[in-house]
Structures are given as C-alpha cells and as structure tokens.
Amino acid sequence: MATPVPPNKNPTPKEYLPPPPTPEMKQPADYKKTLQAHKDHRVVSKCYEFFKAYRECKKNWQEQRKRDRSS
C-alpha cells in the first residue's frame, strides 16, 4: 500500500508560476459560433463505407466463431 505524501511546505517560485491573463487571452465575442463550427468537422459519409465493411466483416467473424465453438 502506498504511503501518503505530505503537502509541500515550500511555495512555488514566482518564475515557475503561470503568467497573469492578458487581453489576448480573453474569450472572443463570437466564441459560441466558433465552437459550433468545430462540431461539423467530422464528415460521416466519408467513413460510412469503411465502417459498414467493418461491421459486415465482424459479423461474419463472430458467426464463424459460433459455428466453430458449437462443433
């Protein structure tokens, strides 16, 4: 069993702290529109044929395993 680690009593030096927020880091006014655009980055039609073939192959493989186990 692991032993608990005591808390660090030395504060983090200022040179290792993250910088304070700058105006460039502010949330853009159109952030909702920007994030909405990222939802459409996947085009399902491009992958449909691949996954259809995968499902058929897996189905055939599982049926073959069932037949092999029953005999």
UniProtKB/TrEMBL annotation:
Taxonomically, the superkingdom here is Eukaryota
Q: Where is this region: Disordered?
A: 1-29
Q: Where is the composition biased (Pro residues)?
A: 1-23
- Could you identify this protein by its name? Aerobic respiration-related protein
What is the organism of origin for this protein?
Trichosporon asahii var. asahii (strain CBS 8904) (Yeast)
